[in-house]
Amino acid sequence: MLKFNFKKLKFMRSLKVRIFLIVFIVGLIPSIIVRQAILQNYEERAVSLRTSDVQTQLKILANHLITYHYLQDTSSEVIDAELNMLANLYDGRVLIINNNLRVVKDTYGISEGKTIISEEVIRCMKGENTSKYDPENGYIEMTIPIMETLEVQETGKNPVKNDVVSGVMLTSVSTDYITTTLEILSRKALVVEVMVVLAIFIVSVLASFALVKPFEKITEALSQVKEGYTNDPISVSDCLETEHIGDAVNEVLSRMKVLDDSRQEFVSNVSHELKTPITSIKVLADSLRAQENVPIELYQEFMDDIAEEIDREDKIINDLLALVKMDRTASDLNISQVDINLLVELIMKRLRPIAVKRDIELVYESIRPVTAAVDEVKMTLVISNLVENAIKYNKEHGWVKVTLDADHQFFTIEVADSGIGIPADSLDHVYERFYRVDKSHSREIGGTGLGLAITRGAILMHRGSIKAVSEEGEGTTFTVKIPLTYIAVS
Ligand code: ADP
User: Which of 420, 433, 436 to mutate to test the pocket of ligand 1 (most atoms within 8 A of CB)?
Assistant: First the structure.
């Protein structure tokens, strides 16, 4: 089947054109229907009026025919005159047919003596009025029975009056005047309709322009934002839809701004963090150069400081690289079955010397053996960062307790310490890049402020979660929950 594809017509994709067409068609169809209905109604009414008019005249005439015994003797001039008058009045033809179906009178004078056996005449003979409108040839044909009251005398009974059909009047009257009036009306209606179409056209054009205007405004506002003229929120409150579009765009813009701000903040933080060790190195080197005959001990001491700053720079760069890796997709994960108990034990063994230095007790409690599908390198990073922090932000002679547990779905690692704790308002921020509760203290103990950001990134890549509870001065507990099996999302 041939199918017309409107989408292929480029102009049909314009909202303006669509609104114009809808309003125009919706306006046009009723006006055409109303015009047609009015004309048809007039025609029906005119035909029915004429029919009943003529029928009344015919009935009167039928009575006269009986009175003058016209069916038996057509010599009555009075009746002839009446018949001719009726025929002239309605621009038609009258035929009088007797009960033998023979035409006794034809006002055209051509069918007299002929027999007429039409359905209408037969029906009329049975006492029925008929009428038929033929719009094509412009006439109404009708029949009415000529009724006669006869007295019937049955033997032994009183005479009974009986109405019998003695003949039929077959009449056709012209409807030319109806057709003429219809033509005049139709012409007038056409003029009105042309005016209505013009009005609808103008209304459609105005409606299409008015309804599309808010969308044009929003496009203009958007292109202004695109071209960078303004950062003001978009507001086109002409209609609800454009208001919603404006709100949605504003939301996207503000989200982009937040992203942009955080990116800028990150870049400035990175530059600052990277610059600090370099500034120290420069100061140390300059002060050595500025002095003559520097004692070797001082050289040694400054060189140690310079080496320390270089280590720090190296740590920041390594942490940044680790963080960038976390930002990549989870497909970078190198998943394998890892014995988590063994992993925690190894990490704690590696970190024990730092704990011992500050006389911090390191306790490990494994509730059950756990093997999970994880990226070993990243999981090592997670656990060591948490344990390292628990040691770093602890008090002398404190303790750190690591607990490993699992259920049928997840394993949990809890790292609790007896350290300085985290203030409640900082608890949500510790995962942010470069966030440190006490900058100078963190710097002193070699922190970069990136550890927990890296930790959280790695946990999220494993579809796990991390949460912390802390009491200032009492200690902190970080709880990490990771699924035992890794389900990659395609
Ligand atoms: P940093 O390299 O400074 O340790 P992190 O991202 O690992 O950076 O931690 C962010 C901040 O959170 C730290 O500077 C510290 O103030 C706080 N913090 C992290 N772990 C602990 C903890 N166990 N006890 C107290 N404070 C902590």
Answer: 436
Cα→Cα distances 132→137, 139, 205, 371, Å: 12, 9, 48, 99
pLDDT cut 90: percent of the chain above it: 57
Does the beta carbon of 475 sit less than 6 angstroms from any atom of ligand 1? no
Whether the per-residue pLDDT at 3 is higher than 60: the answer is: no
Residue 236 lies inside a defined structural domain of this protein: no
Q: Which residues pair with 416 in a beta bridge?
A: 401, 477
- Evaluate: CB of 381 within 6 angstroms of ligand 1: no
Ligand 1 pocket check for 398: Cβ under 6 Å: no
User: Residues 360, 402: one domain?
Assistant: yes
Residue 65 lies in a domain: yes
Looking at ligand 1, which atom is closest to the CA of residue 421?
Answer: 25
Q: What is the pLDDT of residue 154?
A: 72
**Which atom of ligand 1 lies closest to the CA of 436?**
14
Q: What is the pLDDT of residue 383?
A: 97
Please say whether the beta carbons of 109 and 115 come within 8 A.
no
Same domain? 27 vs 136: yes
Looking at the predicted structure, is the pLDDT value of residue 489 above 80?
Answer: no
Residue 129's domain comprises 13-153+160-182
In angstroms, what is the span from residue 428 Cα to ligand 1's centroid? 12
DSSP 8-state code for residue 433? T
Q: How far apart are CA 257 and CA 260, in angstroms?
A: 5
440, pLDDT greater than 80: no
Q: What pLDDT shows up at residue 479?
A: 97
Nearest atom in ligand 1 to 438's CA: 16
434 CB less than 6 Å from ligand 1? no
Q: Is the CB of 355 under 6 A from ligand 1?
A: no
The band of 470, judged by pLDDT with boundaries at 50, 70 and 90, is very high
Q: Is residue 166 predicted with pLDDT exceeding 70?
A: yes
Q: Which amino acid is it at 279?
A: T
Q: Is residue 356 part of a domain?
A: yes
For residue 451, being part of any structural domain is answered with: yes
- CA of residue 387 to ligand 1 center, whole Å: 11
Output the average pLDDT for the chain. Answer: 89
Residues 453, 337, single domain; the answer is yes
Domain shared by 298 and 371, yes or no: no
479 and 340 assigned to the same domain = yes
Per-position b or e across 45-75, b if 16+ CB within 10 A of its CB: ebbeebbeebbebbeebbeebeebebbeebe
> Structurally, how many domains does the chain consist of?
3
421 Cα to the center of ligand 1, angstroms? 9
Is the pLDDT at 174 greater than 60? The verdict is: yes
Same domain, 391 and 293: no
- What's the length of the chain? 490
Query: Are the C-beta atoms of 170 and 95 separated by less than 8 Å?
Result: yes
**Which of 385, 420, 422 maximizes ligand 1 atoms within 8 Å of its Cβ, making it the mutation to test the pocket?**
422
Ligand 1 centroid to residue 266 C-alpha, Å: 18
Residues 59 and 118 in one domain: yes
Do 97 and 64 fall within a single domain? yes
